[in-house]
């Protein structure tokens, strides 16, 4: 081979070492990869690397020791971190610190030293004095700015603010950061706001010495609610004795240490939960759950949540029990085949409202048709309204006004009827749990499906599958 050709080939394979920089998309990191020299080529130098960094505008967070490390032969071909920026640290959101036990933390059965749940000591009321410190707002922070490897500042996101949850009977300081009780009463959370409700204490029975009670806060009765009397409270009602033939209605929870025997004229109704030892021959309704210790006997019971009977002989015998979610007991029905209806999966209030509208709608439509007929008669007479005598003109105006109002009312009723119909078709986790025996004479209704118990069934759950009520293992 000619000498000049050999020198040309050697020159082509001699190559200096090179460096390449890789920058992350957020420009917070840069990596250096050095390639080895070829043939008689020279290794890449620190000077060349720094020239490369300058061209790439990498000026911040440079790790000098890593530059040297990347240039070492044992690290050739590896990607070495040589610049590290600082990410922005977003500000913390404002938050509320409560200085009293929240309802969800304090409301619930107390567990005694033997591990037994006491459903009658539920901690529903937390009393405070005027001036008590209730809550404070920890303000949002601005955060800390960052900087990328090109030296560009990265602004942080400021934390989100929240309002001090000031409700009724509370007062804030000048900075609107601290909340205090404005009166003595029961502190609770209503519509996500801290509210202090006065608590009315009755140191005996509700009888002729007290009369009926209609109160804006919570009521504690250290006795019975006797036949014929009424107790209304916007908050919770706690009865240390029995409810007998009375009407007790609470916007919150109803807790009865004894039992409930309202008869057909009485009623116990709660916007929250109802807790009692037993229910017998009564009407009982709750927006949420109904928790009974011993038994529900020959009663009409309705819950927007679940109905649970929890004690050793927990029984539901006779009557009708309706719940949106679950009904749970150890025994349902009796050995005497007592007719008992368990209905789950539809909000009882929806069903009642649907039936009421469905019943009233035809008469409303009939009235509308009669008004429309009378208006048509007047229209066919071809008499201008201004030519009618004053009495007939007033009658015409009343008819037109009534027609418009009734037509609007019917449209709203039909819309509500459609909504309720759709809601009643939504059966989710509806279930009936029987931990011991369900007896003949019991009808179990899940949504629109019915299961009639002909023989005793033990330790089972009743669920809705493919439109039918089926028996499933307990879980």
UniProtKB/TrEMBL annotation:
<dbReference type="InterPro" id="IPR046866">
    <property type="entry name" value="FapA_N"/>
</dbReference>
<dbReference type="Pfam" id="PF03961">
    <property type="entry name" value="FapA"/>
</dbReference>
<feature type="coiled-coil region">
    <location>
        <begin position="396"/>
        <end position="430"/>
    </location>
</feature>
<dbReference type="Pfam" id="PF20250">
    <property type="entry name" value="FapA_N"/>
</dbReference>
<feature type="domain" description="Flagellar Assembly Protein A N-terminal region">
    <location>
        <begin position="20"/>
        <end position="191"/>
    </location>
</feature>
<dbReference type="InterPro" id="IPR005646">
    <property type="entry name" value="FapA"/>
</dbReference>
<protein>
    <recommendedName>
        <fullName>Flagellar Assembly Protein A N-terminal region domain-containing protein</fullName>
    </recommendedName>
</protein>
<keyword id="KW-0175">Coiled coil</keyword>
<dbReference type="InterPro" id="IPR046865">
    <property type="entry name" value="FapA_b_solenoid"/>
</dbReference>
């Amino acid at each position: 081979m000619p000498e000049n050709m050999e020198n040309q080939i050697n020159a082509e394979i001699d190559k200096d070492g090179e460096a390449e920089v890789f920058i992350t998309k957020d420009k917070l990191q840069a990596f250096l990869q050095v390639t080895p020299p070829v043939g008689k080529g020279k290794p890449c130098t620190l000077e060349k690397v720094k020239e490369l960094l300058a061209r790439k505008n990498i000026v911040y967070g440079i790790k000098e020791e890593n530059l040297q490390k990347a240039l070492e032969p044992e690290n050739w071909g590896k990607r070495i971190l040589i610049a590290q920026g600082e990410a922005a640290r977003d500000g913390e959101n404002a938050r509320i610190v409560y200085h009293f036990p929240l309802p969800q933390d304090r409301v619930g059965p107390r567990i005694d030293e033997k591990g037994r749940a006491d459903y009658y000591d539920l901690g529903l009321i937390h009393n405070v004095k005027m001036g008590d410190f209730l809550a404070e707002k920890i303000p949002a922070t601005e955060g800390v700015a960052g900087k990328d490897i090109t030296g560009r500042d990265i602004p942080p996101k400021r934390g989100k603010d929240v309002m001090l949850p000031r409700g009724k009977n509370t007062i804030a300081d000048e900075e609107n950061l601290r909340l205090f009780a404005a009166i003595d009463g029961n502190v609770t959370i209503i519509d996500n706001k801290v509210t202090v409700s006065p608590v009315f204490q009755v140191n005996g029975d509700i009888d002729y010495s007290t009369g009926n009670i209609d109160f804006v806060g919570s009521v504690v009765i250290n006795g019975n609610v006797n036949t014929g009397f009424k107790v209304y409270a916007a908050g919770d009602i706690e009865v240390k004795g029995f409810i007998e033939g009375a009407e007790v209605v609470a916007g919150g929870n109803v807790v009865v240490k004894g039992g409930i025997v309202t008869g057909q004229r009485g009623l116990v109704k709660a916007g929250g939960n109802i807790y009692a030892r037993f229910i017998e021959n009564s009407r009982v309704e709750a927006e949420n759950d109904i928790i009974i210790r011993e038994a529900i006997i020959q009663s009409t019971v309705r819950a927007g949540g679940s109905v649970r009977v929890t004690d050793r002989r927990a029984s539901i015998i006779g009557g009708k029990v309706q719940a949106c979610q679950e009904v749970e007991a150890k025994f349902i029905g009796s050995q005497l085949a007592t007719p008992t209806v368990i209905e789950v999966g539809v909000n009882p209030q929806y069903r009642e409202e649907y039936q009421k509208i469905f019943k009233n709608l035809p008469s409303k439509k009939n009235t509308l048709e009669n008004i429309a007929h009378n208006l048509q008669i007047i229209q066919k007479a071809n008499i201008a309204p201004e030519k009618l005598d004053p009495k007939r003109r007033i009658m015409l105006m009343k008819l037109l006004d009534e027609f418009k109002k009734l037509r609007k009312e019917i449209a709203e009723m039909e819309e509500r009827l459609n909504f309720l119909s759709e809601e009643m078709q939504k059966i989710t986790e509806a279930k009936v749990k029987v931990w011991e025996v369900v007896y003949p004479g019991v009808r179990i209704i899940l949504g629109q499906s019915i299961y009639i118990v002909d023989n005793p069934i033990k330790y089972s759950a009743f669920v809705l599958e493919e439109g039918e009520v089926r028996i499933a293992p307990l879980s």
